[in-house]
Amino acid sequence: MNILKAIYIFIVAITMSTALTSCEKMIEVDDPINQITREQVFADVNTANAALDNLYMELQANSMFGRRLGALLGTYTDDLDAHFPPSSSSMDNLNVYFNQVIPSNSEVLSLWNNAYKEIYVANAIISGVDETTSISIADKRRIKGEALLIRTMIYFQLQRLFGDIPYTISTDYQENKMLSRMGSTEFYLKLQEDIGSAVDLLEDNYRNAERIYLNKKAAQLVQANIYLTLGKFQAAEEACRTILANAIYNIQQDVSKVFKKNGNHIIWQLKPLIANQAVPETGIYYFSSAPPPAHSLSINLVNTFEEVDLRKQQWITKVKGNGVSFYRNDKYKNYATNADEYSVVMRLEEVYFVLSEALANQDKIIEAGSFINMIRVRSGLSPISNNLDKNAFIAELLKEKRREFFAEQGLRFFDLKRNSRLQELTAIKPNWQQFHQFWPLPQNEMQLNPNLKPQNQGY
Amino acid sequence: MKIYGINGYVQLWRSPTKLECITCTSFSASSGSTKKKIFLVMKLTAILITIFFLQVSASTKAQITIKENKISLEKVLEKIGKQSGYDFIYSKQDFKNAEKLNVNLDNVSIEKALEICFAGQPLAYEIAEKTVMVKRKKSIINSVIDYFLNIDVSGRVVDEKGNAIAGATVKEKGTGLATSTNETGFFTLKNVDEKGMVEVSYLGYQSKELAATKDLGEIKLSIEVGELEEVTVNAGYYRVKEREVTGSIARVTSKDIENQPINNVLSAVQGRMVGVNITQNSGIPGGGYDIQIRGRNSLRNLQNGAIDGNQPLYIIDGVPLGSAITSTYSATVIPFKSINPLNNINSNDIESIEILKDADATSIYGSRGANGVILVTTKKGKKGSPSVMINSTYGYSEVASHMEMMNTEQYVDMRKQAFSNAGVTVYPANAYDVNGRWDQNRYTDWQKELIGDWASHRTVQVSVSGAGEQISFLISAQNSKQTTVFPSDFNYKTNQISSNFSYQSENKKFSVSNANSFAALSNNVVQADLTNSALNLSPVAPALYTAEGELNWEGNTFTNPLASLKGNYENQTYQFNQNINLAYEFIPELFFKINSGINYQSLEEYLLRPHTMSNPSFGRTSNESLSSKSKNDVFTYVIEPQVSWSKTWGDHKVSSLLGGSFQQTVNKTSSIVGVGFSSNALMRNLSAAITKNIPQDIRNEYRYASVFARVNYQFKNRYILNLTTRRDGSSRFGENNKFANFGAIGAAWLFSEEPFLRDNKWLSSGKFRTSIGTTGSDLLGDYQYLDSYTVGNNSYNGGAGLFPSRLYNPNFSWEQTTKFEAAVELGFLADRLQAVVAYYNNRSSNQLLGIPLPGTTGFSSIQANLDATVQNRGWEFQVNASPILSSNWKWQTSFNISLPKSKLISFPGLSGSTYANTYVVGMPTNIVKLYNYTGINGQTGRYEFTDFNNDGRITSPDDAQAIREIGVQYFGGWQNDVKFKNLSLSFLFQFVKQTNWNYYRNMANPGVLINMPVELVNVWSLNNPNGVIMPYDPGTTALNNTLSSNFKNSTATVGDASFVRLKNVQLNYSLPLRGRLIKDASIFIQGQNLLTLTNYFGLDPEFILTGYLPPLKTYSLGVQIKF
Q1: Pick from B241, B252, B246, B301: which is nearest to B276 by CA?
Q2: Which of A173, B590, B607, B819 has the maximum number of C-beta atoms within 10 A of its C-beta?
Q3: H or E element: which one contains A126?
Q4: pLDDT the model gives residue B162
């Protein structure tokens, strides 16, 4: 019996120790099918492009471009009215409209978080292509250029919304979690450097005929806007003229086609994520009966149009309900099926306005007026008066720009701010205060990163 | 002694000296009269006594010689009797059919002679001493007749000192026939089979079995020291006698689980287990539970991460359950999308649930035991004749708690005041409730309208079970259907089939058992929980439907909450579980065992969002209808070979276990989203969608391997030492961190066994136990150490995007928790009073969690080990008592209370970390930092807060310095079982002392178009300085908005959320229908969550996330019949 027992114990011991030694092997697992390593991504131009595609997807779905900032800043300023029935979920939206943004506002937080998430992805792509040797130089330049441009665009918007903000080109979370806010002087130096490199890296030609990816001219428009904001009017003028010199762009003479995807006036547009789906803007602005469930154009905006203005006829629709009239933003028409509309983010008309403003600031009022007039004439209006002083001209320019770009990209807010005219909003926005020129940093962010202190003045 | 005589003669043949003939006349089988039976019994007794005395003089044994042809059997026996001196007892009638014989016996033994004579006869015989009894071979009729030969058994039950025991149970074994003793200890059990066995039992005494006789006389029961001894506890890889347990194991048995109108057994366990705090996430069937076994060891929970780091390990019949299935689309209905894996198990199939808490019990599960282990043992067939059980329950449920909201007058008054406070005289266009757009005189109780329906449920279960010496089986099938409290036809259906087979070889060396279960659950729920709308909607809001029966949007002024009913969320779960356990005893006490299991879970989900859900003013068509479908498959297999050996010599006893475990889990998820349908009728078919998108297609693999060992040493049956250890490897860690070691040591001292206490009258058992050890956790999701890009959910320009999966950190390693425990277990007065006191102290360090990061990092968290130590310690008390145990009355009661406390022991670099504004060293981990609300200013009517940094402004985080705890201070339960004859009543009170967020936390600003609790009628004004809130505001005053926001982040929002809940009441009546056919029948009435006492300001104090349906109050009626 004892021998038998010894044998059994021996067998068991052998089995167990075999199991032990092969443990390493036993817990080896297959790689997941939906993930590839970072090295693999940047070893091939197609996967590197896929990483970049994801960034464009983010811009369309979650970023400040496309729909989001247009509606938010449209209600924050005087372009749009918000009609959400008050409920816990719509309160933060309504508080933007009522100019009661506070640090805990969820719209502020999601805008911030999405922006930095996209900045992280752009940084990851930039470092990925910088390190790789298996992609052609031309592709590396293009990919890096596009990522750099996207990052710059986001930083530029953020700076104008929040004031001093953290700037990072790193993907190291240890560094990024402790960032402090960068002073605007230094920040703009970085931005000018970045946009300069982007302009340098990118080419004029589009890699997709539908102009859904960024090119050099888009970078130059961003550059022009940065110069304009910094008061570098001559540099802004030069950048604009470079764009206009390119023959692939022409002004869209037919007002009804400004938001159709095929025009030569388009510099950059975002394609809907699902083929033939309506652009996100229609979901925000469309309503067929009154009162509207979400947004309508403010009466103040509608009243700035002359009756003959083709834009009023083409882009605005009156909807009556219970004896009250509401005005619908009708720039995009296809709310059900959509074969011919993409979200237009940058178009030639903006170049005209930037150039005009840059010229006016250099006291070249007449020439500045000529670019405004190209828009007015196209819109069925008479040319602007020739004998305006600089201040009056810029006032007219801003009015015209509002009529052209209402509810687009928050341009109204940035234009008023750049020209120190935000106080004009008090006329129809009773809660408006000077400190509203900046949004508060998200409370959540302030709690997680003590280095972000202090909060913006007023909040 | 067996004598047969029916309807005629019983003959006693006595040779050679005397022939006696006793005739029992007119004894009729059909009469069944007791008197006659007694008469018969008396007569036979007399005969037998005669025989006994006669035998004394009987002659010596002889050889038989008979040679005769065509002789009757009776004659042959007569001759044999003469030659041998044996007596014969038989009925003349029986011999009628006996054949005539040709007999040729030559000097043979009596046995041989009888064998030859009875060959081929319809008769059987028995030899006892020198008497031969002849009887007819039994037929069915005979068996039936036997029944009427049953006797009434009576006797008296006393204790060792001869004192009467009242209330002792006397029952006939195997029939369910039972009675109990009266005050003087006497009993009469009627109609007992003469051949049957009678069992006498009484709690705290050793049971006695006796052969049935008419008068059993005085039956003495002796005290059983350590009633616990009989109970064995499932400790996972081994079973252990309760008295020898060294670790902390909480246990609930089928008695407390059976027949309850619940979907998940965890509902039945709430309040019954000390140290185990269970919170139901939602009143919607099919959801999850938050389980905290001795507090939260991990800081990672569903609120800050994708995977709850505090989930326990589930083991079903010895085999670990694979990872839980993950839901993709249920977020709007099921809080945290959490679906509990025990939903798949029919609670009536569960024999017991054991929860392992301390290191001694859990460290054998090593890396997976940190949060406790939940062991589920399913029912097995029980010895005895096969039985069929039918169980049917029907009931109704409604929402257990309501909030009293403002009525029309109060609400309209609030709105008008709000506008007047803001100086608005002309009501704005969107103030539909007061500007005349809506009818201001309407009143709707939205809680009644939206979540006020009665949900019905019914359950039917049939099971067949039985067991012999070597084989046992149990097959059970269950079907249930439950509707919801929402105003539509939603329901949750379950079908479960399970079976259990086991076999043991005749020599008991080899055994095999196989447990199967299959569950099909389907849940069809509202698209989004309507609870929030029920509280928020204005009482004057328009009707839900127009006169034509269409959804009413009241001309775009009303966001109709029932729009969500146009869509729905559906899921179907299939779960198949198969466990095979083999054991072989090679040599005595050396067992080789293999536990193996396969678990397959499949979850299919549909989320349908037809265009009709949105306001028609948006002009949407079925081109925008959206249909999503997701499928999640989890396949797990587990193999666990084990060797166990035990040996006893003298005072020493050693038992040991060596085992290995290997698990592989493959988790596949894919989903498809279709947008645009030519008609909504096609929405279930995604191939009909105009555009289709595949947001995810995932395959994750998890492998896990380990070896473990246990050695248990006992000395003199009272000193016990238990050592467990385990080495684990998990694929969830990066290259250098895959393996880790865990271990524990436990000891117990049964001091009541010591000589100086053994003869003690009052202390019947006493044990001190303690343990210390480490456990770990690998609950963090697969592949977290990879630096990778993931295929995106969406595409741009047709190509699938790739995005960075996570912040890269390959260096995270195992989280370890060190657990210490000490406990005393005492039993008094034959264990009629038992008490357990336990103290534990768990320390988790190197915590593995998603450390929150600011948005500037691009992510919200990173997987890393936190260099901080969290302590969870607490006291647990449990008392069980049996105050009344009389013949008619029985009352058993048990009470438990747990006092957990967490504390952050150390956190180097806290102030520079992202937790700087979350935790404080030396404080509990469930604290929140808030503005300190000091009240409403008597002049300005504004909320005021402490300005901690004295900068004149209230800003976060500098002024958010007031610390409050969100969590439990103590909790427990009080269970009672009262029995009166056939009627039994049991009820359970659950109590929780806690603080939690109250209504103010998520409140809209009072005065906007949202209804408020009636308490907020008490608004501050110069005339009412004690008002609880600031003057109403329509939401347009910036200052008010800021102050209200600060208020919602202040100490005002944390309040007492303690409650006492009558968790379960069950009234059971055992029907007196017992007989040969029906073994047991009972009807029962159940109530669940019947009564809640609370001061909580909010809907229901039991919640994890607000805005979801609270637990339901249920009434049910059921029948259980056993054949």
Answers
A1: B252
A2: B819
A3: helix A106-131
A4: 74
- Closest-CA distance of chain B to residue A394, Å: 31
Q: Cβ B857–A120 below 8 Å, yes or no? A: yes
Q: What are the chain A neighbours of B690 within 8 Å (beta carbons)?
A: 276
Domains of chain A and CATH, by start: 2-202 (1.25.40.390)
Nearest to B992 by CA among B1088, B911, B1095: B1095
Distance CA(B596)–CA(B582), nearest Å, equals 9
For residues A443 and A107, give the distance between their C-alpha atoms in angstroms, rounded to a whole number.
12
Give the integer Cα–Cα distance in Å for B529 and B1103. Answer: 14
CA-based radius of gyration for chain B: 37
Among A119, A166, A447, beta carbon nearest to B917: A447
Alpha-carbon gap, residue B26 to B6, rounded angstroms:
9
> Is B783 in contact with A100 (Cβ distance < 8 A)?
no
DSSP string, B1037-1106: -HHHHHHHHHHHTBGGGEEE--EEEEEEEEEEEE-S--SSS--EEEEEEEEEEEEEEE--SSS-S--SST
Reading chain A (459 residues) residue by residue, the pLDDT tens digits are 566 666 666 666 666 666 555 667 788 888 888 899 999 999 999 999 999 999 999 998 887 776 678 999 999 999 999 988 766 677 888 889 989 898 989 899 999 999 999 999 999 999 999 999 999 999 999 999 999 999 999 999 999 999 999 999 999 998 999 999 999 999 999 999 999 999 999 999 999 999 999 999 999 999 999 999 999 999 999 999 999 999 899 999 999 999 999 999 999 999 988 877 889 888 889 888 878 888 999 999 999 999 999 999 999 999 987 778 999 999 999 887 788 999 999 999 999 999 999 999 999 999 999 999 999 999 999 998 888 999 999 999 999 999 999 999 999 999 999 999 999 999 889 889 999 999 999 988 988 898 998 899 988
Q: How far is B540 from chain A (nearest CA, A)?
A: 14
Q: Collect all residues with Cβ–Cβ distance below 8 Å to A150 and sequence separation of at least 6.
A: A55, A59, A118, A122, A214
Q: Which two tokens stand for residue A104?
A: 């805990």
Rounded CA gap, B629 and B627, in Å?
Answer: 7
Give chain A's count of helices (H) and strands (E).
Answer: 20, 7
Q: CA of A124: which chain B residue's CA is closest?
A: B804
Is residue B766 within 8 A of residue B826, CB to CB? The reply is yes
Which helix H or strand E contains B40, and what residues bound it? helix B34-55
Which residues lie below 8 Å from residue B1046, measured CB to CB, with a gap of 6+? B931, B943, B945, B954
Give me the helices (H) in B408-530, please: 408-421, 446-451
Chain A closest-CA separation from residue B804 CA (Å): 7
Give the gyration radius of chain A's Cα atoms: 27
DSSP B348: G
Look up residue A394 and give its two tokens. Answer: 């810029």
The structure tokens listed for B610 are 């037809």
Q: Do A51 and B701 touch (CB under 8 A)?
A: no
What b-and-e string marks burial along B656-693, b requiring 16 or more CB atoms within 10 Å of the CB? Answer: bbbbbbbbbbbbbbbbbbbbbbeebebbeebebbbeeb
Query: Which H or E run contains A350?
Result: helix A348-361
Report whether A27 contacts B729 (CB < 8 A): yes
Give which of B327, B950, B181, B317 is closest to B595, Cα–Cα.
Answer: B317
Q: Which residue has the tokens 């997976």?
A: B368
Phi, psi of A261 (to 5 degrees): -70, -15
**What does the alpha-carbon distance between residue B817 and residue B297 come to, in Å, rounded to a whole number?**
7
> Is the ipTM above a cut-off of 0.90?
no
Cα distance between residue B513 and residue B698, in whole Å: 35
The secondary element (H helix, E strand) that includes residue B293 is strand B289-293
Residue A406 DSSP one-character state: T
